[in-house]
Amino acid sequence: MKSINDLVKEAHQNAVSKGWWDEERSFGEIIALIHSEASEALEDYRSGSKPNEEWYQHKIDGATYTQHTPAHKPCGIPSELADIVIRVFDACGRYGIDLERAIAEKMTYNATRPQRHGGKVI
């Protein structure tokens, strides 16, 4: 299994090679793109998709299938959640963020927090 930082590097290199960094992006734009992927997951849910439901859409005819081949785009909430992570990885690669360390540090801190800290309702 690759480390989180290896995946960060790979996601960012792929985005660079596909031209997504030919022009500089603002930090706000990067966050908006991450948010847009979360919104797509919510829209799939609002359309009746189950959180673990996946399907594959053919790139040419748009029909949906159960198989995954290079001619089929993964769809559904799992795919949108993956897109969120990939965009976060790309951003971390761009800004030189050690995401693996940041996650470990935050998880350690979160373990010290009280039950249902903050008390906020959705």
From TrEMBL:
Q: Give the highest taxon in the source lineage.
A: Bacteria
| Protein name as annotated | NTP pyrophosphohydrolase MazG putative catalytic core domain-containing protein
Q: Give the originating organism.
A: Paenibacillus selenitireducens
**What's the source species' lineage?**
Bacteria, Bacillati, Bacillota, Bacilli, Bacillales
